[in-house]
Amino acid sequence: MDSLEVYKQILGEKKVSVIEFLCAKCDKNGFVTLTVSEICVQLALSKPTVINTLKILKDKNIISRIKNGVYKFNRF
């Protein structure tokens, strides 16, 4: 089993897909400029799923919310 499968078992496949999407969409400085609604549409996921995933990432100090629709990975 690879590490991605372990993460999916721990967090759930939808949360992992949000995290992968955010990583793919960040610029060279670690910024992601997408609203929750845009993420939901692009991934076909519910707002609670996306909001909960962002909350997990914020609580673990992985990302910071700069303003609505702008997030930054802290350890970039």
Shape: globular
As a percent range, the share of strand residues is: 5-15%
SSE order: HHEHHEE
* Average pLDDT, all residues: 93
- End-to-end Cα distance: 27 Å
Number of strands: 3
Helix content: 55-70%
Class from secondary-structure proportions: alpha+beta
Low-confidence segments, given as residue ranges, are none
* DSSP helical segment count: 4
The largest sheet is: 3 strands, antiparallel
Q: Could you state the oligomeric state of the chains shown?
A: single chain
Lateral strand order in the biggest sheet? 1-3-2
Describe this structure in words.
The chain is an alpha+beta fold and 76 residues long. It is 57% helix and 14% strand. The chain contains four helices and three strands, in the order ααβααββ. The chain has a three-stranded antiparallel β-sheet. The longest helix is centred in the first third of the chain and has 13 residues. The protein is globular and about 35 Å long. The chain starts with a helix and ends with a strand. The model has no long low-confidence stretch (mean pLDDT 93).
Task: Describe this structure in a few short sentences.
The protein contains 4 helices and 3 strands; from the N terminus they run ααβααββ.
Task: Please render the helix and strand layout as text.
Elements: H1 3-11, H2 13-25, E1 31-32, H3 36-43, H4 47-59, E2 63-67, E3 70-73
Antiparallel strand pairs: 1-3, 2-3
Protein traits:
76 residues, alpha+beta, 57% helix, globular
